[in-house]
Amino acid sequence: MIWLAWRQFRLQTCVAVGLLVAVAIAFALTGPHNVHVYDTVVRTCASRGDCPSVTQSFLGRDHLLRDLSLAAILIPVLVGMFWGAPLIAREMETGSFRLAWTQSVTRSRWVAVKLAVVGIACVSVAGLYSLLVTWWSSPFDTINDNPFSIFDLRDIVPIGYAAFAFALGVSAGVMIRRTLPAMAATLVAFAGVRVAVTQWVRPRLISPLHHSGPFKLFTTNGSPAFSGKGAAGAWITSEVTYNAKGKVIGHNGGIGANGGVNFQPVGNSSAKVVLQGVGQCPNNFPNLQRGVNRSNQVSHAMSEAVNKCLASFHLRDAVTYQPVSRYWALQWYELSIFIVLALLLAGISWWWVRRRLN
Predict the structure, then answer these.
(1) Quick one: CA torsion of 20, 22, 34, 236, rounded to 10 degrees?
(2) SS3 at position 115
(3) Average pLDDT of span 337-344
(4) CA-CA distance, 164 to 181, in Å (whole number)?
């Protein structure tokens, strides 16, 4: 039965292995050079004082391969649709399952072997691809310094997504018994579960930390001002800004209805400034640039003027976040969730074939 399952699935396996080899070759040819450039040019840029230009140039490298790394988020759903959903549904449509059951192969063994052989292949493909992408992208990820922004694309969670998508596709095929409807159901259900886990489950897997302090846009060196415990690389799940009376005036680092932090000159003056949605700043501004925000690189004088204005209004920021030290714990928790869901769906499919399929 194992040999039969392999023969039925060998074409898909060979295609997947061929694509993995091609990606591995491309990454192997470019990855070591990227690491060398990062170590010798980017990491030492502070001593030369050219970090902005060097970093921008480095991040502009290998756009095609960087776009290819985004396929890590598509592989699980493709596995579920094209490997999982047809696995049993196609047998139902053609009636070939009856031939297998008359060859001294029990239903339990038939479905168990199919689940095991193809399931292991799915998990292996997703795991190897995630490993390749994580290794090749490491210099770029180090510069971005925000591991939570690529949480779904790196390390071990894609393995759980692939296992879940495959089991979901199999269970949809077993219950619907038609390949195309099962593929559509797999896509919709997988997307729904992924959104639910990302938006509502993941932020609550570990109780988040909270930071409250004066609202600032920049520190004295022009970097983002949030400086709570574990702030570097943290995943900010919510950020609320209050005025001196305790009224909420902004969310996610913005103030006012447009969601930004905008300073505008008063009349023809270039020194007197209004903070939109709050009021006129009591201090003067040097060389005002419109639309100052947390991503801008600003001078020391500008950052001091901005923060002095904000301090005069007694604005406060309340931040809820997960520190970067919890990254791997969240990876393991989320992987465990999807592996458990995959096992439950596989068990349901096995039971359905044994008890309900005729």
Answers:
(1) -30
(2) helix
(3) 97
(4) 18
Q: Kindly give, in sequence order, each residue whose CB lies less than 8 Å from that of residue 354, ignoring residues fewer than 6 positions away.
A: 107, 108, 111
Gap between the Cα atoms of 65 and 24, Å rounded: 11
Token pair for residue 343?
A: 């096992």
Looking only at the bridges linking them, the beta strands covering 209-214 and 316-322 are: antiparallel
Nearest of 219, 213, 211, 215 to residue 310 by alpha carbon: 215
Using left for φ > 0, alpha for ψ between -120 and 50, and beta otherwise, residue 289 falls in: beta
First and final CA of the chain: distance in angstroms? 20
pLDDT at residue 248, rounded to an integer: 86
Burial 170-179, CB ≥16 within 10 A → b, else e = bbbbbbbbbb
Q: pLDDT for 115-141, tens place per residue?
A: 888 899 999 999 999 999 999 999 988
Q: The tokens 């109780």 sit on which residue? A: 207
- Nearby residues of 161 by Cβ (< 8 Å), 6 or more positions away: 76, 126, 152, 194, 338
pLDDT of residue 113 exceeding 90, the answer is no
CB 9 within 8 A of CB 118: yes
CA distance 159 to 25: 22
How far apart CA 36 and CA 42 sit, in angstroms, is: 9
Sign of the alpha-carbon dihedral angle for 181, 187, 188, 190: positive
Do you know the residue count of the chain? Answer: 358
275 contacts 309 by C-beta, under 8 angstroms: yes
Closest by Cα among 348, 320, 351, 358 to 172: 348
Q: Where are the domains of the chain?
A: 2-205+328-355, 216-314
Taking phi first (over 0 means left), then psi (-120 to 50 degrees means alpha), and beta for anything else, what does residue 259 get?
Answer: left
Q: What global pTM score does this model have?
A: 0.83
Q: Which amino acid is at 279?
A: G
Average pLDDT over residues 285-302: 58
Alpha helices in the chain (DSSP H): 2-37, 45-48, 51-59, 63-69, 75-79, 85-94, 96-101, 107-144, 157-176, 179-196, 300-312, 327-355
Would you state the structure tokens that stand for residue 341, as one six-digit string?
A: 């869901």
